[in-house]
Design a protein that fits this description.
The protein is of the alpha+beta class. It contains four helices and four strands; from the N terminus they run H-H-H-E-E-H-E-E. It folds into two domains: 63 residues, no CATH class; 98 residues, Alpha-Beta Plaits, CATH 3.30.70.60.
């Protein structure tokens, strides 16, 4: 059938090449070209915007996230010792941990914005770590800043007793 057409083979080859080029563009290159144009347009818009800090929605999201973080640290400092310690004691009782010591407030742990409270707990390792995990998720008592595990030996008249003690430093915003 192609032999009967009065068209030269070179013209058919050229038409076939153009047809393949158009099909290839439609299937492969068209989306790439559109994505490149979109990228150019977005780059231009980004260059026109002076900075991200001028966008109100960005500032609102950032402010909300900072408020969430600060709310973890906030506590009422006037009732911190009584309310927070009673809540911490109830958490410790649930995990069979003993609140062994609440030292007097040390002025070294005060700054203009934060209060750091040291608490000592006694118990086995797994109960202490579970209780520490619950302290991290509790609200209104501050945020655990650090925990130190120590083995303390006490000597009684008949035997030496070893206890595992966890010192927890809680930080709260004034």
């Amino acid at each position: 059938m192609l032999k009967q057409l009065p068209i030269k083979k070179e013209y058919l080859l050229l038409a076939g090449s153009v047809l393949l080029l158009v099909i290839g563009y439609q299937l492969a290159f068209r989306r790439t070209a559109e994505a490149w144009q979109l990228h150019s347009r977005l780059e231009k818009q980004l260059a026109e915007a002076t900075s991200l800090h001028d966008l109100p929605a960005y500032l609102e999201r950032k402010n909300h996230n900072l408020d969430e973080i600060v709310s973890l640290y906030k506590t009422d400092t006037t009732t911190f010792r009584s309310n927070a310690i009673s809540e911490i004691t109830s958490i410790a009782e649930k995990e069979n941990v003993k609140l062994s010591e609440v030292p007097t407030q040390d002025p070294m742990y005060y700054s203009g914005f934060f209060i750091i409270q040291k608490l000592d707990f006694e118990g086995d390792y797994f109960a202490l770590t579970k209780m520490y995990n619950q302290l991290q998720s509790a609200k209104g008592i501050g945020v655990p800043r650090s925990a130190i595990f120590k083995v303390v030996e006490t000597r009684s008249s008949t035997e030496d007793v070893q206890k595992l003690v966890m010192e927890v430093y809680l930080e709260a915003v004034k």
